[in-house]
Amino acid sequence: MTAIAPLVDPFARPIQYLRVSVTDRCDFRCTYCMAEHMTFLPKKELLSLEELDRLCTAFIGLGVEKLRITGGEPLVRKGIMTFFEGMTRHLQSGALRELTLTTNGSQLERFAQPLADCGVRRVNVSLDTLDDEKFARITRWGRLPQVLRGIEAARAAGLRVKINVVALKGFNEDELFGITDWCAREGHDLTFIEVMPMGDMSEETRLDQYWPLKDLRARLAERFTLTDLAERTGGPARYVRLEETGQKVGFITPLTHNFCESCNRVRVTCTGELFMCLGQEDKADLRAPLRASADDALLVEAIRDAIARKPKGHDFDYSRQTVSGQMSRHMSHTGG
Length: 336
Ligand code: SAM
Known about the structure:
- The chain has 336 residues and is α/β, with parallel strands linked by helices.
- The chain has helices spanning 49-61, 80-93, 108-117, 132-139, 144-156, 176-186, 203-209, 213-223, 287-292, 297-307, 318-324, 326-334; strands spanning 17-21, 66-70, 98-103, 122-126, 160-167, 189-194, 226-229, 237-242, 247-252, 265-268, 273-275, 283-285.
- Strands 7-8-9-6-5-4-3-2-1-10-11-12 form a twelve-stranded mixed sheet.
- Helix 1 (49-61) links the parallel strand 1 and strand 2 (66-70).
- Helix 1 runs parallel beside helix 2 (80-93) and helix 3 (108-117) packs parallel to helix 5.
- It is globular, with a radius of gyration of 19 Å.
- 40% of the residues are buried.
């Protein structure tokens, strides 16, 4: 390992969580996330598997303890298991405490066991509906049975599954209790995500589909007794326990900035851009220092310089993001 002093930002927050997007490609075209016809990046723009390994290894050397792999769809990246296998050494050494991923589940039937063999213990699976027809509609290209088989394979491999549901008014409102009950029965954790203004939606659809999580929570409270949990992960999730079932349910409201004070995370896109904050555009290029030398000194210097600029909090400007399509590119590379 190259570095000694762990990463701490100017507000004394240690940087312990890294989210890395390994591809901009996806085998689904969720309407709120991507246009149906996407132009993807040329291969040379992407970090290679070796570069991804070097990058993550450098961050782990600097104190990152939790690594989340995302995309695009991380499991459609060719050779991605080589990367996961490589990260196993950091779990074994104890430097890395958790290796995990966010996936649409389409490839889990094949990869759940190999991932478990690499030391992955938990996966987040994005799933917005349990209805075949609605699933095909929202993902455009996805098929629900394939994802359900993937989730089953994950469970069979001993992985803990968290279901991530984007709350969409008029789309899955009527499934709130159905999905919650299904997760209770199957033993899956559950988190609802407030929809962000991006993807290939008309302005009207966007507004139509916005279902504030405070409304969703109020609906949940009509049936369950909700107890707020103090638990924080340093990210935008808040948790409650449903007393009747004992289930833990999370709420992610990406546009609020009520979590900045404990923010311990940064993200890297598949092209090696480091974003220090979800809600701000400031970024640092890590690909150039990665490619400039086989030694990691330049890379570590670039990471340190960037972390020194991590802002105190984000001031998310809803309107700005919808105009330029910036959010869409940013998200599809960073994986939300
Ligand atoms: N392909 C993987 C997956 O489906 O989980 C990882 C990438 S995906 C961009 C990561 C998460 O972002 C998913 O849970 C997805 O539902 C969520 N997401 C995408 N677009 C979103 C939006 N406009 N608002 C809120 N969440 C969004």
